[in-house]
Amino acid sequence: MGFLVKIIRKEWLTHNVIQFVLERPKEFQCSIGDAVDIILEPSGPKQRSAPFTLTNLPDSTVLELIIKVYPDRKGFTAALSKKEIGDTLDISEAWRSFEYLGKGTFIAAGSGITPFIPMIKEAKRRGTLSGHKLIYANRNLEDIILKNELEEFLGLHCCNILSRERAAGYAHGRIDRKYLNSRVTEPDQYFYVCGPDAFSQNVKGLLMNLGVKERNIQIGY
User: What is d(CA 31, CA 49) in angstroms, rounded to the nearest whole number?
Assistant: First the structure.
C-alpha cells in the first residue's frame, strides 16, 4: 500500500540538506526509527525509488523527511529538490529501519543522523535523555544537520568531529580507534550507527575491537 502526500513545508536546513514536511494520511502508521520509500514517476517507465528515514515522532500530525541533495549527480535527490510546496510525493508504508532499544551512543556520518533525530526528540520529551551520547562526523561545520538543536539537547554529550575544516571547539579528523576509545566509556550500552556502508562497517569493527558486543551494535538498513 502506498500514499500520495502533499508537501506543506520545504526548508533548506544546510546548503545541501532539505527538510520536507508532509501531510499525514489518517491511516498512516509509523514508529520511531521507521523509514519510507519515495517513488518518483510511479506510473511511468522511469520509476525510481529510494529509502529515507522519518524524523517525526509517531504521534505527530505531519510527516517529516530530511534529505541530503547531491545536485552534481543529477539523480534521485536532485529531482526531489525541485519539488515545491503543494506538490505531492508517492511514499510507501513505513518499515523498520532502526529500533530504539535503550540508552546508548548514536554514531552518525552526514545524513546518517536522520534515524536518531526522533529517538533524541522522544528521549528529550520523556526526560530520559541523560546518559545518551552523540558522535557526529561531518566534513565541515556548515554540513552539520540541526546543529543548534542537537547541541542544545545533548550539551557536552554532543561530540562533533570535522574531517576537512578546523573550527574552535570541534574535534578534527575521522572517527578512528583512538577517537572512539576516548569517548566509549560504557561498552555494555547500545550503539546505534548510521552512515555510508563503509563508515558503518568500519565503526562496527572499531567498537567490537574496543570490547562492545556485536549484539549491542545496530546498523539498520
Answer: 21
Residue 13 near residue 101 (C-beta atoms within 8 A): no
Contact 184, 213 (CB under 8 A): no
SS3 8: strand
How many C-alpha atoms does 157 have within 13 Å on its Cβ side? 15
DSSP 12-29: EEETTEEEEEEE--TT--
Q: Which stretches does DSSP call E strand in 117-162?
A: 133-138, 158-162
Q: Rounded CA gap, 53 and 94, in Å? A: 9
pTM confidence score: 0.94
- Angle, alpha carbons 69-13-174 (nearest 5°): 70
Tens digits of residue pLDDT in 77-115: 999 999 999 999 999 999 999 999 999 999 999 999 999
Residues 6+ apart with CB under 8 A from 70: 16, 77, 78
β partners of residue 12: 18
The tens digit of pLDDT for each residue in 33-43 reads 999 999 997 76
What's the alpha-carbon Rg for the chain, to the nearest Å? 18
Cell 555494555 found at: 188
Residue 70: name the closest of 193, 219, 196 by CA: 196
